[in-house]
UniProtKB/TrEMBL annotation:
Protein name according to UniProt: 2-C-methyl-D-erythritol 2,4-cyclodiphosphate synthase
NCBIfam families: ispF
GO cellular component: chloroplast
Subunit architecture: Homotrimer.
Taxonomic source organism: Sesamum calycinum
Family per record: Belongs to the IspF family.
Subcellular localization: Plastid, Chloroplast
Domain 2-C-methyl-D-erythritol 2,4-cyclodiphosphate synthase: 78-231
Superkingdom of source: Eukaryota
Cofactor: a divalent metal cation
EC numbers: 4.6.1.12
Matching Pfam families: YgbB (PF02542)
GO MF annotation terms: 2-C-methyl-D-erythritol 2,4-cyclodiphosphate synthase activity; metal ion binding
Length: 234
């Protein structure tokens, strides 16, 4: 996943916080009273009205008053997101796909467990929510994510989705790798993905294809994944 230390983000809708806590209202005048585990909210400079989100290792949430937006944020009945990820394959590393350890002669060299599928699913959910990408929310420059199981990122993405008032409509993922064959492992991967998402198997689809021996993907030197999600307003 991409490296980044900071980001600017203006969410398209108010993010609901867990019960008993005040909402974190992203657009317009912003009042934030609670602590979020990974995100810090600060004012976006210049003309844009919504506050920006800045990644922080600290758990504090800060916000400054903003000029009121001329139009209210749209609360859409559906939101679509796309995720993409690619990792280099190197000998001596485990190959973890969708939380399942796949026997292979090499695996992903990455700061976390290098789970290309979970990373791109997280990115698709974050993208649908109009949030920054996984590399910005969980920067690989932060030692706390070193070797972290990607299920941690998934749980956070699902939490953000729920707090925003959405649930998974359906998800379609495509893995691209030359070797090994994924068909013996596909159902285990999909079952684990469903569990992490809290989703019925009927709305979680997983496909795999080779890269026709072309480029690094086709030469067993990398692995990639695409995911599209549809989120539905609860
Ligand atoms: Zn990744």
């Amino acid at each position: 996943m991409a490296m980044a230390n900071s980001l600017c983000y203006a969410g398209p809708f108010p993010v609901k916080t867990p019960s008993k806590q005040s909402p974190v209202q992203l657009p317009g005048a912003c009042v934030v009273r609670r602590s979020l585990p990974y995100l810090k909210f600060t004012a976006r400079p210049a003309s844009s009205s919504p506050p920006a989100v800045v990644v922080a290792s600290a758990s504090t949430v800060e916000a400054e008053p903003q000029a009121k937006s001329p139009t209210p944020p749209k609360v859409l009945p559906f939101r679509v997101g796309h995720g993409f990820d690619l990792h280099r394959l190197e000998p001596g590393y485990p190959l973890i796909i969708g939380g399942i350890n796949i026997p292979h002669d090499r695996g992903c060299e990455a700061h976390s467990d290098g789970d290309v599928l979970l990373h791109c699913v997280v990115d698709a959910i974050l993208g649908a929510l109009g949030l920054p990408d996984i590399g910005q929310i969980f920067p690989d420059t932060d030692p706390k994510w070193k070797g972290a199981p990607s299920s941690v990122f998934m749980k956070e993405a699902v939490r953000l989705m729920n707090e925003a008032g959405y649930e998974l409509g359906n998800l379609d993922s495509t893995l691209i790798l030359q070797r090994p064959k994924l068909s013996p492992h596909k159902e285990a991967i999909r079952a684990n993905l469903c569990e992490l998402l809290g989703a019925d198997p009927s709305v979680v689809n997983l496909k795999a294809k080779t890269h026709e021996k072309v480029d690094s993907l086709g030469e067993n030197r990398s692995i990639a994944a695409h995911t599209v999600v549809l989120l539905v307003r609860k």
